[in-house]
Amino acid sequence: MNVPYFIARRYLFSRKSHNAINYISAISVVVMTILTAALFIVLSVFNGFESLIVDLFNSFDPDLKITASAAKSFDFETFPAEKLAHEKGVVHYTRVIEENALLKYGDKSYIATLKGVDSSYFHITRLEEMMRDGSPALTYQGRQMAVLGYGVASALAVNLGNVFRPIDLYVPKKTKKGVMITPENAFNIREVLPSGVFSIQQDFDSKYVIIPLNLARELTQYGTRLNAVEVAIDKDADVFEVQHRLEKLLGPAYRIQNRYEQHEVLYKIMKSEKWAIFLILTFTLIIGSFNVIGALTMLIVEKKKDIRTLWSMGADGRMIRRVFMTEGVMISLLGCSLGVVLGFAICWLQYRYGIVSLEGSGTFVVEAYPVEIHFRDMLSVFVTVTLIGIIAAAIPARRISRKTLQWRQTA
């Protein structure tokens, strides 16, 4: 029989001689339960937002993006496009030209980034799923069309139903050094009709206008040059493996970025925020563990006679300390287990029914706080609370050998 565990269990679940100790032990369990549940819920909400943002970005970003390593653009005629198309795992690629431009619509103007793409673009991204209004058409009956981000469309007050009012696109002309251009001839100007409005995330919505590649070439005077080639890979292929093979194929002149690397800073910030919150709530758990210390201290005071009886029966100081260490760990484990169950239940209810909604949810992609439960977070919470409980239990238990048992040495 595990004697320390047996005695600790009796102390925890049987009635004590003083009700105050009962209440303090119960409060300790409740505090650890609430703090554990809060930690678990917050981590799950962070996971939900992270997955939401990643999913939104993935609807616009390609699996792999190829750019020039040391320049803004590269000549597509020297690019090994045929080898890329036949590379294992590659299913589609699209040519891309990006350039800042001034947009004018009626009496309104706005500076945005034009993204010129070819017909393969909609095989690369899931932009069609993110349309807020209209359709993602780049041509219609021989006319060139544009798909606008929601922020751009709002700034220009674009009316998709007015087919007689085009958007004027202004891009500065590329000139040789020393050649002077009059202000009225300083821009390449083209007209385009809006065909649809997409809404993904503010960074994209307020920045991009998708136009045909040929129109982008006319405006930028790029000729056969491109800013990027965006690649879609097979869903069963390994992204990192394909990326590594393309790096060997293209050489150091080109940079190949996966979806994480295209927004590396953002993803690092999201991870840092999550673990910063984890540390803050861990400090809260440490403060809450003082309830365990208080409960054990009062229990030790109450059980002085029991301690001396155990000593007289041959129990050494180590065994007696283990009784109260076990008591503290049991309080922490009970609170932790109840907290994980409570947190899991709340997260499931939020995921299933969206109980807690976002204020002004009409302006958000989702109506309620997203949650996503990860087993590693559950394990991290359980280990953290357990370690805090062991340390909290050790503090009062260590005092037994110095004070409580001194009577034996002086007897």
Plain-language structure description:
The protein has helices at 3-13, 19-58, 81-85, 121-124, 150-156, 202-205, 213-220, 239-250, 259-262, 264-288, 290-302, 304-312, 317-353, 375-398, 400-404, 406-410; strands at residues 64-68, 74-75, 90-105, 108-117, 131-134, 139-140, 143-149, 167-172, 187-198, 208-212, 225-226, 228-233, 254-258. A hairpin with a 2-residue loop joins strand 6 (139-140) and strand 7. The protein is an alpha+beta fold. A 6-stranded mixed beta barrel has the order 3-4-10-7-9-8. The protein has a two-stranded antiparallel ribbon with strand order 2-11. Helix content is 52%, strand content 20%. Helix 11 packs antiparallel against helix 13 (317-353). The protein is built from 16 helices and 13 strands. 33% of the residues are buried.
Characteristics of this structure?
411 residues; alpha+beta; six-stranded mixed beta barrel; two-stranded antiparallel sheet; elongated
β-strand amount: 15-25%
- Quote the distance from N terminus to C terminus: 31 Å
Number of helices in the DSSP assignment: 16
Q: Specify the biggest β-sheet.
A: 6 strands, mixed, barrel
Unreliable parts: none
Spatial strand arrangement across the major sheet: 3-4-10-7-9-8
SS content category: alpha+beta
Helix and strand element order: HHEEHEEHEEEHEEHEHEEHEHHHHHHHH
List the helices and strands and how they pair.
Layout: H1 3-13, H2 19-58, E1 64-68, E2 74-75, H3 81-85, E3 90-105, E4 108-117, H4 121-124, E5 131-134, E6 139-140, E7 143-149, H5 150-156, E8 167-172, E9 187-198, H6 202-205, E10 208-212, H7 213-220, E11 225-226, E12 228-233, H8 239-250, E13 254-258, H9 259-262, H10 264-288, H11 290-302, H12 304-312, H13 317-353, H14 375-398, H15 400-404, H16 406-410
Parallel strand pairs: 4-10, 7-9
Antiparallel strand pairs: 1-12, 1-13, 2-11, 3-4, 3-8, 3-12, 5-9, 6-7, 7-10, 8-9
Helix pairs in contact: 1-13, 2-10, 2-11, 2-13, 2-14, 11-13, 11-14, 13-14
